[in-house]
Write a structure and sequence with these properties.
74% of the residues lie in helices and 0% in strands. It has helices at residues 4-21, 24-31, 44-54, 57-67, 72-87, 96-101, 103-127.
Amino acid sequence: MVDLNIEKNFLPWIYYWIKEISDIKQQKMHWLNENNIDNGVSSYIEIMCSLFDDLKFDDFVENTAPALGFSVKLISLLRDFRDGLKNYIAEDDNDDEAIIKDPNWQIVVKKAQNVIVAWDEYKEGNKND
């Protein structure tokens, strides 16, 4: 059974990491320290560990998102993104610059962008309920 009180605490972090994946400029800022105006620091490895280990992203997509009433469209996009992220293979997990430039990573970035658009639409729609 999903403990929604605990899981809701994960929502801002899951959204945050997906948002970072969706934004190459932010990746360059945090992963490569380019024009780092907010002093944030992260990496491909940190995102993967945070999403899948700390935030239990697989369980979130399959159980928590439906329990929270996420739309069918958003859950489908989350699954597509999760699968793309899990199937992405970097030549070197520690070479963030190469990952950012990798055309296969760009596919994951696009999937993340799709999730963010749908998640924002979902949040906006719920404000009107």
